[in-house]
């Protein structure tokens, strides 16, 4: 194990006997290697940071630079990333470092004073989705979730060669607390905040909730907005499911997306928003920013973001409830709630039941299926069943282990329509799955209601749905050659083609794209 004096991270340099190299990549700040045991079942993600491999002269200059930055800190850690970087650069340049290490030196100083240290390097790997440091940190290896570790859309947890010292954890969490402005103490032992410049959501725990000391989880957001087509390309759904969800969003259905943590609920929720008509006003209520508001606005969507800040009231639930009440006074809008989990659910469902929301309502909620979500909302959150019936559809994201292996894939496992019957609510599947998705052959009341609102018969509504499916099949085929066809702009173009009366799918849409 190696740890230079300026770093709070121990790095294991040597691989265990018998382990072999699977992959090697150079990233800004260091080298990444993935090694596997002789069976190939266990893998280890190994980081070799520049500062842990620097020669004696470079290490000496690095130590001087770090000491100088720590003795002359920036005026405020809450400043813009560019301002902080400029401050560090001026101090490093005052030491006249050799030009051949200037870039690596500046990056190492920045990471080890104002950043996340070695973890910043890991977060530059697009395959990494989550990083976990469990308590007691000095006795446990950090581990991560690695996507595409063994196949298309396959991801799994992987240990690393990193151990974080207790002193480093205290400093790291302290910086997160300071920059967020949120409380974090024994009386408020959970800190949730964004590391905006890194595109990361951080969750920290401390005693008494984490009795063995500080713990940290980092979740990296996708740099490219998720669309239903991008999720289909990854295997989470296909053109049939994408077409159905597009139809439901265009019909302003109210949808809850459920699933376990890490199943892709937020990604699917974000993707759904690009299927709204562009004239639909959208209000987004979140406590950490995950919905791609800027990407939506750049396409012409009218989006108002409302960020719930528990530090203002000390209570996330009451803050979310107040934000929801305010949103209902802002005029006809679709309401998107990042996560339904507290008293705000009562306000949300009352608004849906009485029509105050004015349009569709969307949100994510923990649960493994429509029936479990119903039980949680009605029995745990105390929502009357008559109000819960305002939910049109519950979509379940599941974590599947192909062949019972260690790897997992994210996939839609259920799209259930909420139907009132004399015996109570029923949750009827709108899709079946046998390796591919198929539309249910039963009469679907929600589809009929949406079609009626468009002045269509049920059969005409089905035909509209089939055209959506065919167009998405075309885009997926084109996306295999050029990923741009999976982007939000092409999802919008596909819908605009239908809104303009396009009746020919497939080749007709291709001709439309080419301006014929």
How would you describe this structure in keywords?
single chain; 516 residues; alpha/beta; 9-stranded mixed beta sheet; 8-stranded mixed beta sheet; 19 helices; 21 strands; globular
Structure description:
The protein has helices at 50-53, 56-71, 81-93, 102-113, 118-123, 166-180, 228-233, 239-250, 265-273, 293-298, 310-313, 316-327, 344-354, 370-380, 385-388, 445-453, 458-479, 488-499, 507-513; strands spanning 9-11, 20-27, 30-36, 43-49, 128-133, 143-147, 155-160, 162-164, 190-195, 200-205, 215-220, 255-259, 281-286, 302-307, 333-337, 358-366, 393-400, 409-421, 424-429, 431-433, 437-439. It is α/β, with parallel strands linked by helices and 516 residues long. The strands form four sheets. Strands 2-3-4-7-6-5-11-10-9 form a nine-stranded mixed sheet. The longest helix has 22 residues, at 458-479. The chain is globular and about 80 Å long. The mean pLDDT is 87.
What portion of residues belong to β-strands? Answer: 15-25%
Low-confidence stretches: none
Main sheet: strands, sense, barrel: 9 strands, mixed
Q: What does the radius of gyration come to?
A: 25 Å
Topology (elements, then pairings):
Blueprint: E1 9-11, E2 20-27, E3 30-36, E4 43-49, H1 50-53, H2 56-71, H3 81-93, H4 102-113, H5 118-123, E5 128-133, E6 143-147, E7 155-160, E8 162-164, H6 166-180, E9 190-195, E10 200-205, E11 215-220, H7 228-233, H8 239-250, E12 255-259, H9 265-273, E13 281-286, H10 293-298, E14 302-307, H11 310-313, H12 316-327, E15 333-337, H13 344-354, E16 358-366, H14 370-380, H15 385-388, E17 393-400, E18 409-421, E19 424-429, E20 431-433, E21 437-439, H16 445-453, H17 458-479, H18 488-499, H19 507-513
Parallel strand pairs: 4-7, 12-16, 12-17, 13-14, 13-15, 15-16
Antiparallel strand pairs: 1-8, 2-3, 3-4, 5-6, 5-11, 6-7, 9-10, 10-11, 17-18, 18-19, 20-21
Helix pairs in contact: 2-4, 3-4, 8-17, 12-13, 16-17, 17-18
